[in-house]
From TrEMBL:
<feature type="transmembrane region" description="Helical">
    <location>
        <begin position="129"/>
        <end position="147"/>
    </location>
</feature>
<feature type="transmembrane region" description="Helical">
    <location>
        <begin position="74"/>
        <end position="93"/>
    </location>
</feature>
<protein>
    <submittedName>
        <fullName>DUF368 domain-containing protein</fullName>
    </submittedName>
</protein>
<feature type="transmembrane region" description="Helical">
    <location>
        <begin position="199"/>
        <end position="220"/>
    </location>
</feature>
<keyword id="KW-0472">Membrane</keyword>
<dbReference type="Pfam" id="PF04018">
    <property type="entry name" value="VCA0040-like"/>
</dbReference>
<keyword id="KW-0812">Transmembrane</keyword>
<dbReference type="InterPro" id="IPR007163">
    <property type="entry name" value="VCA0040-like"/>
</dbReference>
<feature type="transmembrane region" description="Helical">
    <location>
        <begin position="159"/>
        <end position="187"/>
    </location>
</feature>
<feature type="transmembrane region" description="Helical">
    <location>
        <begin position="102"/>
        <end position="123"/>
    </location>
</feature>
<keyword id="KW-1133">Transmembrane helix</keyword>
<feature type="transmembrane region" description="Helical">
    <location>
        <begin position="281"/>
        <end position="298"/>
    </location>
</feature>
Length: 305
């Protein structure tokens, strides 16, 4: 952490936009993008600073000192980028998901494969325990992507829990928060609440999300401080396990209609040669290579800076 100039904060906003674009796609996590772009630990630490200590700093030292303590400029720049992306790119990405799913998923597949290498390289010492945790993380993420969704539910305690779990998934590389809401059967309830301006439902989910974010950030920060290699191995495993969800060629077994749109909730991966639609193999490979290369180009740019 530390002071940045305007250009550096602009770069943080661009990273936020990349996170927002990933979060719009059900199956891709903004946490993965945060990790790739080198801001993951700072994000966790900054969120961790928001707590009871802030309430003590505010009356004693004022707003400026409190803002600095929580790394406010960084969080504002990042969340501004996420908001811009969700508002501007949501329509485009939704269109691509319906009209060019193979090409969109191919790009993200290449991106996520590269991020596996990127995160795994940060592990300093490979030990049997580290390997075991990596395999466990991959198995957990794979299991989550295979779960059948539960029926839609509107109980307030359940919505509080849904908000907490979805936000935890959103900051975990490899697991998508939107996908968790679909699995828990809360996606439609939340979507309806947005349209109907149901303040009680939205406030319950929001409070659950804040609770999940603050408590989970503390756990992650503690894990990074005490068991960095094991934490990195677990996150790498989560990303590997999520590759099942973003394989480009799949057939839909079950879908649900949300807000007039059909969203696949249960799919089966197939070979490009067994795919019922146009496999677009050459373009899919080229876009996967582009996604893969983009990660290492970003890494080189970051290293130069």
């Amino acid at each position: 952490m530390g002071d940045r100039n305007f250009l550096q904060y602009l770069i943080v906003t661009l990273k936020g936009m990349a996170m927002g674009a990933a979060d719009v796609v059900p199956g891709v996590s903004g946490g993965t993008i945060a990790f790739i772009s080198g801001i993951y630990e700072e994000l966790i630490t900054s969120i961790n600073q928001i707590g009871p200590a802030v309430l003590k700093t505010l009356p004693k030292q004022g707003i400026v000192a409190t803002w600095k303590e929580v790394n406010g400029n960084f969080l504002l720049s990042l969340f501004l980028g996420i908001a811009i992306s969700v508002i501007t790119l949501a329509r485009l990405i939704s269109w691509l998901l319906i009209n060019e799913p193979v090409l969109l998923w191919s790009f993200f597949f290449g991106l996520v494969v590269a991020s596996v290498i990127f995160v795994a390289r940060a592990i300093v010492k490979w030990r049997p325990a580290v390997f075991a945790i990596l395999l466990a993380g991959a198995a957990i993420a794979y299991f989550i992507t295979q779960l059948p969704p539960v029926e839609n539910t509107s109980s307030l305690p359940y919505l509080f829990l849904s908000g907490a779990l979805a936000i935890c998934a959103m900051i975990l590389p490899g697991i998508s928060g939107a996908f968790i809401l679909v699995l828990l059967g809360s996606y439609k309830t939340v979507l309806d609440a947005v349209h109907e301006r149901n303040v009680i439902t939205l406030a319950t989910v929001f409070v659950g999300a804040i609770f999940g974010l603050l408590s989970f950030a503390r756990l992650l920060k503690w894990m990074f401080q005490h068991y960095k290699d094991i934490t990195l191995a677990l996150l790498t495993g989560f990303i590997i396990g999520s590759l099942n969800k973003i394989w480009p060629w799949k057939i839909v077994i079950e879908s649900r209609v949300f807000d007039g749109k059909s969203i696949p909730v249960l799919e089966e991966n197939v070979s490009p040669f067994a795919y019922s639609g146009e496999p677009q193999l050459l373009w899919a490979i080229l876009l996967a290579i582009a996604g893969f290369s983009l990660i290492f180009m970003l890494e080189k740019l970051a290293a130069k800076k």
